Amino acid sequence: MATGCIRSPRLSAANEASPTTPVAHVYRAVDGTALKAYVFTPTQAPRNGRAPAILLFHGGGWSAGAPDWTFASARRYAELGLVAVSVQYRLSNENVTPVDALSDVCGALNWVRGRAAALGVDPHRVAASGVSAGGHLAAAAATIGCGNAEGEYGNGGPDALVLWSPALDVSGDGYFRRLLRGRAAVEAYSPVEHVRARMPPVHIVHGERDTLTPVSGARRFCARVMAGGGQCELVVYPGVGHLLTRNLANQESDFDPDPVARDDGNARQLAFLKSLWIR
Question: How many other β-carbons are positioned within 10 Å of the β-carbon of residue 279?
């Protein structure tokens, strides 16, 4: 699977228009770098005083991107009734690998659960949303886990997964292997190889002609989740590529998302979370 440098398009002002504004918090500091979590509160107070939460992880091939790439999605989830948290994680370079980014993802999950009362969050209803490389990190937290027993599923990972063009099978990915810089085996960080018998519910949106994170990985992942008795819904849109782009010739940077597929995918993922947690 040739992943290349996956970059998500920046959000336009029109897409970001919303009455909600995030509050920035430092959720951890590593080697003098403060990593931030941008918290959007629900537009309506939850009935029981505690709301579900969703942490959002941007794409960018593990080496590019920023939390504001997920702000538009965060606002949609806040309008649904979730506490939405757009997360900054360390980007790969000569000193940082995706293993470090996964540590940040776990740190963010721990931070939200540890501050559940202050944030108004139900610590047993914490989802992870990931796009492309961010989808890999969210799925890795659910499969490999975060080394503790927090959360409904007992491994410190999320209680639901909402993924968009995720990189779920990286075992044969030379680009990902290079990013690891020999510090870990690729198979050790390939989510499809670590699907557990007890998995959180999963929803995946994918383009049929995605050449960067091929849909075959998502199909294998879903099949293994369901074989273990879990819930996994995979929605595949024909004729589009990575991030549902219509530009099949350049899926790495020149994105032209199909608006019908994009809007349908967003609606389906909102409906998925609503069916789980919003009554």
Answer: 8
CA geometry: angle at 83 spanning 85 and 140, to 5°?
Answer: 50
Place of tokens 């579900």: 52
Query: 23-48, pLDDT tens digit by residue?
Result: 999 999 999 999 999 999 998 877 77
Q: Kindly state which CATH superfamily the domain 13-277 is placed in.
A: Alpha/Beta hydrolase fold, catalytic domain (3.40.50.1820)
Alpha helices, DSSP H, located in the chain: 13-16, 71-80, 98-114, 116-119, 133-143, 174-180, 215-227, 259-277
CB atoms near residue 263 (< 10 Å) = 11
Residue-wise pLDDT for 231-250, tens only, equals 999 999 999 999 999 999 99
Local structure of 50: helix, strand or coil: coil
Taking the C-alpha atoms of residue 230 and residue 258, their distance in angstroms, rounded to an integer, is 30
For the entire predicted model, the pTM comes to 0.93
Q: Which residues, including other chains, have CB under 8 Å from residue 259's CB and lie 6 or more apart?
A: none
Please report, for residues 57, 76, 103, the alpha-carbon distance to residue 206 in angstroms, rounded to integers and kept in the order given.
17, 19, 26
